[in-house]
Design goal:
Helix content: 25-40%
CATH topology: FAD/NAD(P)-binding domain
CATH class: Alpha Beta
Bound molecules: flavin-adenine dinucleotide
Order of helices and strands: EHEEEEHEEEEHEEEEEHHEEEEEHHHH
Oligomer: single chain
Strand order of the largest sheet: 4-3-12-13-14-11-15
CATH superfamily: FAD/NAD(P)-binding domain
Number of strands: 19
Shape: globular
């Protein structure tokens, strides 16, 4: 589940990896519309790094990444579930289950990228630390008639129980992704009702939310204290995540993947335990820049009154709003080793 908005910085990482073709068919982000109650702000997206942000369905993006990896010699195992990771002196071992059959894979180095809900390395590194009373993620890809949103527009509606984002995908379908307070969902009697209440307060028209099969995530704001162990590196959301509000999660996940690659190469040739410490340090370097803007935005928008005030102010100063969005186009610090 995802908002499907790639920031300019995420697009730049893909270009730098020689994967620019992955973005063929993506819709360019042209405008952002923000709503909080009766306050609205609309402003253009500044084209910066990576040619600006794009909108692309995860179905297409993920398949394009799988195809690119396969072309480079990776073996992609579909419908395969990793059950556990163990590390030994001379290798790491992953047990995997595919079509009812369980087998064990041994590798010199393992990169764990099992996302926000992943629990693969809990045994090795301990459980994730979650923000108390944090929001959960909810979303779905919906039919074209769900919203009247135009292609190239990213719309965000904020309310007391959370916020949701809308974007029209390259297929014409509408992607809806939300961060909701689970108490609000319970109080409203379900996800569709909770989203409907935010939409109606913001005067955003949404149709047919009744019978949607929503996907969900655990608490969004969570992280691991340790992101590496002997012969094991953790990257992307599996290591740390905050909130989707600034649309930087995919860029951060890509940047952390690129950064860890050099350590993987070195570890595969000859493992030294100091490599785990190196990734811990590099990860600390990449995370703060990413968390800075996202953390400030989510903190600011937690109060509906503050969100309304901020959006009214941005409505009068579209230049400031555009520069703030432009901040998500700042280069991710891919750490070289
Ligand atoms: C509501 C919401 C909206 C968002 N909107 C945006 C946005 O607009 N732009 C943006 O950049 N980011 C957005 N994000 C964040 C973005 O989705 C993530 O940051 C990004 O997908 C992280 O990539 P990842 O590879 O680390 O994890 P994921 O993309 O979550 O991939 C993890 C993969 O591991 C698989 N997996 C898990 N456990 C196992 C196992 N045991 N065995 C095998 N496979 C396993 C999962 O099935 C999944 O395919 C949003 C997130 C949420 C919750």
């Amino acid at each position: 589940m995802c908002g499907c908005c790639l920031s300019g910085a995420a697009c730049a990482v893909l270009e730098e990896m020689g994967l620019g073709a992955v973005l063929d068919g993506a819709v360019a982000q042209e405008r952002v519309v923000l709503h909080a109650g009766n306050a609205t702000a609309e402003f253009p997206v500044v084209r910066g790094l990576g040619g600006g942000g794009r909108i692309l369905s995860r179905r297409v993006l993920d398949q394009a990444l799988i195809d690119a990896a396969t072309r480079e010699g990776a073996e992609f195992c579909d419908e395969t579930r990793a059950l556990g990771v163990e590390n030994h002196e001379d290798c790491a071992e992953v047990s995997v289950q595919s079509r009812g059959e369980t087998r064990s894979l041994r590798a010199r180095v393992v990169v764990v990228a099992d996302g926000l809900a992943g629990r693969l390395v809990d045994g090795l590194l301990g459980r994730r630390i979650e923000r108390r009373r944090g929001a959960i993620g909810v979303g779905a890809v919906l039919g074209p008639g769900t919203s009247e949103i135009r292609a190239g527009v990213v719309e965000l509606a904020l309310g007391a129980g959370g916020y949701f984002g809308l974007a029209r995908l390259e297929t014409g379908e509408v992607d809806l992704a939300a961060a909701l307070d689970p108490r609000h969902v319970r109080m409203q009697g379900g996800v569709g009702e909770a989203l409907g209440s935010i939409a109606s307060r913001c005067d955003v028209k949404l149709n047919g939310l009744e019978d949607v099969a929503w996907k969900g995530t655990p608490t969004l704001a969570s992280r691991r204290r340790a992101v590496a162990a002997r012969r094991v590196f953790v990257v992307g959301d599996a290591a740390s995540y905050l909130e989707p509000i600034t649309g930087e999660g995919m860029g951060w996940a890509l940047a952390s993947g690129v950064s860890v690659a050099r350590l993987v190469e070195r570890g595969a040739v000859s493992w030294r335990d100091s490599l785990a410490g190196e990734w811990q340090g590099m990860h600390k370097e990449i995370v703060p820049r990413w968390r800075g803007l996202c953390g400030s935005a989510s903190l600011l928008l937690r109060s509906p009154a503050v969100a309304r005030l901020a959006i009214r102010t941005l409505g009068c100063r579209p230049d400031v709003a555009s520069s703030l969005v432009g901040m998500t186009s700042r280069r991710f610090d891919v750490v070289q080793t």
